[in-house]
Sequence to fold (552 residues):
Amino acid sequence: MVRFAFFLGVVTLLGVLPARAAPAPLPLLAVLELEAPEGDLPPPELLLLTDTLRGAVVEEVGSRYKVLTRETMMELVPPSQMKCFVDKCAAEIGRMLQAPFVIAGNVRKLGKLLVLTVEAYESTGGRLLGSKQLRVTTSEELFGRIETDMPKSLRSWLRDEQAARPERAGPEQGRVGTGSDFNPTAVEQVLVNFESTPAGAVVTLDGELACRATPCTKAASVGDHQVSMSLERYEPTARKVTVSKTAKKVAFDLPANFAVVEVNTTPNNLPVKLDGKAVGRSPLKLTVNLGPHELLIDDACWQPLGERFNAERGPARKVQMEAVPRWAGLKVSASDSEGNDVEANLEVDGQPSGQSPATLKLAVCAKTLTVTMGGLTERRELSLKERETATLNVRMPTPPKARVAPQDEMEALHSEMSAALDKVPPKAPPRPSFALRAGMSGQSGFLGVSGEWRPSWWGVVLGTGFMPFSAGVTFGSPDNKGGFYADLFGMWVGNSFFVKPEKSGVAYGGSVGWDWRFDGWTVKTGVGLAGTSLGLKGQFPGSVDVTVGRVW
Fold:
């Protein structure tokens, strides 16, 4: 009985002993990527140096801080926002990562030395915890110096911060374990909708990545949680939220980290620079980071003109700039075809600009000068230099001759035609010709001779031969020229030296052909047909004419 009472007392005593407190979560520590602002080290070497520095941090303070990996940081914050050349912006990146402490650094070349600068910041207030410089001659030496020199600096920087945190309770003495059965505690969870304006933000829940882009839905336990959202070009936002069965939605409005600027110029289409970099031609609508900026018109034709402003959140800022030309001078004179100076109207790029002689103030990019005098126009292309005066003399062309009145013009044309006709020699009248031929023809009955007299396009023909006598008319080219001919003739059929017909009488016929005449000679070729009015038969019904002779 005594033993049972003692055992019961021991069990009761163990039941009332306080349970060991759960360890507090380790604070986050971010080691940012080392930078080389002037490109003194290639990117692969910078990655290795960063890994070496991050490894030294883990080895030295990894038991007291949770060091974020490169992959975790890239999921929480876009790489474009992770650039920082050892400045208080490192603290801002630490706040975006929800890390209380951040380490950043850069490498620069100084003569023959490589200088690595490493600094540690408290993210909440941007306080600098410490800084260290390592100077070496080669990148290989830099790797070794990080491993040997950085641990001491890290202990010094983070010692005071660790001292401010309560130490864990020491080990308790007494009996360990109760031998009771395991009963898992059920944690009530609900599905929570995470949204942001604008969408696409990275969400962390109690320091752990919840989702890569809003909107999204994740399970979370009922109770209080620390939620943060971050999006490129927007201010990271974090706050404490309470999740319950009735409060399942978490929505953040992310303040923009940029401003909108609308740029207009007079005239339009002028090149514009923002902070020294060309951004296009006006009009423009630009998205810029918050803070001070400078806009500038930068063109060869217009004077530099700009405006400095401070970009702030809110409605678009409107910037209007009135451009002023770069000026040049032009001394203009005009002269006639004989070299005498004259007055003339001047236009520059289509705009009236007075009369010559004159000295004009022109925009340096003026293109064309037009000079007009009495209906005559001359144009010159301009090439001017700023703040210099060029000299230009324009020689006008010779005026054209006055136009003849219509009536006078007709009279002049008539006179010209009359003069031209007077130069043409009068056509000589046809010259009579006489030809004497011998050969074969229908007029001679077969063979014989004939004579032809032609005063014009017609003539008479007389012949003799196998037939005693023939006479007729001929038609052909006048003026002793050859050409087509046609003959009509009658003949006496009777006894001749060659033929003695049965009957005598008058026959008729005709022939056509070509009369060739050259150098006083004539050759006549053609065909003929003979008939009779006396009923004579067998007297050459058809004939071929071939005669040769002289012509006068």
Remarks:
- DSSP finds six helices and 35 strands in the chain.
- Residues 286 and 411 are 77 Å apart (CA to CA).
- The chain has five domains: 28-162, 189-253, 259-322, 327-395, 433-551.
- Residues 259-322 form a domain with the Immunoglobulin-like fold (CATH 2.60.40.1120).
